[in-house]
Design brief:
alpha/beta; Aspartate Aminotransferase, domain 1; Aspartate Aminotransferase, domain 2; 2 domains; 7-stranded mixed beta sheet; 3-stranded antiparallel beta sheet; 40% helix; 13% strand
Length: 400
């Protein structure tokens, strides 16, 4: 693999490259004389590690407008989602209750809710509009007397659609219902303020923000207390909410990644906007292409497109030789099934299969975009030339 030329990388929504500045900081905590101490130990080695963990907690909290003590370290956003949903339900409704989510959520949310259903919890799954957006009024209508939690992501990982979390948060706060938000795709890229958004729990990931894999965090509101039952027991770490010895180098890496993101967010966005416009303009020349979220309701670093008349497996297999893109969420790629998110938006199976997600970021270049456009146009044209369905469409009489 090292001897072969790598394709242009446009799969930032799956994971981002580790920023070299983050790697340098992490390396400092992997040495024999520096960072191996247990942050829970009460001696010089442990206190040194604990100080580094505390500093990272401040950096993560600062990015979302939280207090450091409201940040609970996890192994990633998947664990954070599980901890928020299961923890909230176990704490506030041990005898059963109701949860509201959406059909287009990440598997970490959907699968957790499905597991809760087997334990007697009722779950309502909202259907988004064609732009994959859940409207606040939909949430209001779904609330019931025993609703414990609303769980909705901020930015959809497949379409880039942005939810009105502030509006949804206001409705939940008025009804006395807790709100959990998966912010893996928005933290470090969109300004976040958990107070203004009226969020009770927020899941965060390091590797979506140019930090290390295996590190994440959950914001848990303390005033008034949101409440959370732990999933992992053994030592009472993280104020009893998540036991286990912390990986100091991972935590420090997440803190540094979030510190850099706070400083460079505007530059990163301008960079993404310019490249996304170039990508959309280029792909717009492909006949019958469909963009699966409106430009004014999605972030400028994720673009999901459907290419009618093209076989899904052939499309991804051929395009992937020149560009690294996705046909759906990375967490679901092993299923070989059409994207459940696109099907929830009303796309037929063959349409969902013929879709690609392009996602770019801090280290994307104009050359990457031009390669993506050229390769996509070449592959789509070749596959359509072999497609009897597309040939029939081309020769069908035009309606005047």
């Amino acid at each position: 693999m090292r001897d072969m030329p790598l394709p242009a990388y446009l799969d930032y929504a799956a994971t981002t490259p580790l920023d070299r500045r983050v790697a340098e900081v992490m390396r400092e905590w992997l040495g024999e004389r520096t960072g191996f101490g247990n942050a829970a130990s009460d001696h010089a080695w442990g206190r040194t590690a604990a100080a580094a963990v505390a500093r990272a907690r401040e950096q993560v909290a600062a990015l979302i407008g939280a207090e450091p003590r409201e940040i609970v370290w996890t192994s990633g956003a998947t664990e954070a989602d599980n901890l928020a949903i299961r923890g909230a339900v176990r704490f506030h409704a041990p005898d059963g209750g109701h949860v509201v989510t959406a059909r287009t959520e990440h598997r970490a949310v959907l699968d957790t809710c499905r597991a809760l259903e087997s334990e007697g919890i009722r779950v309502t799954r909202l259907v988004p509009d064609r732009g994959s957006v859940i409207r606040p009024e939909q949430v209001r209508r779904a609330l019931e007397a025993d609703t414990v939690l609303v769980s909705l992501m901020h930015v959809n990982n497949e379409t880039g659609a942005v939810q009105d979390i502030a509006g949804i948060g206001e409705i939940c706060r008025e009804a006395g219902v807790r709100l959990h938000v998966d912010a893996a795709q928005s933290a470090g890229k969109l300004p976040l303020d958990v107070r203004r958004l009226a969020v009770d729990y927020m899941a965060l990931s390091a590797h979506k923000v140019y930090g290390p894999k295996g590190a994440g965090a959950l914001y848990v509101r303390q005033r008034p207390r949101a409440g959370l039952a732990p999933l992992i027991h053994g030592g009472g770490h993280e104020r009893g909410m998540r036991s286990g010895t912390l990986a100091t180098h991972q935590v420090v890496g997440m803190g540094e990644a979030f510190r850099i993101a706070a400083r460079e967010m505007q530059n990163d966005r301008r960079h993404a906007e310019a490249l996304m416009q170039r990508l959309q303009d280029g792909l717009g020349g492909i006949e019958a292409i469909r963009f699966n979220a409106a430009a004014d309701e999605r972030v400028p670093w994720i673009l999901n497109c459907t290419f009618p008349g093209v076989g899904g497996e052939s499309l991804l297999a051929e395009v992937s030789r020149g560009i690294a893109v996705a046909s759906g969420a990375a967490c679901s790629s092993a299923t070989r099934e059409p994207s459940y998110v696109l099907r929830a938006l009303g796309l037929a199976d063959h349409e969902a299969e013929s879709s690609l997600r392009y996602s770019l970021g801090r280290f994307s270049s104009r050359e990457d975009i031009d390669t993506a456009v050229t390769e996509t146009m070449r592959v789509v044209a070749r596959l359509r030339a072999l497609s009897p369905l597309w040939e029939a469409r081309e020769h069908a009489p035009r309606v005047q």
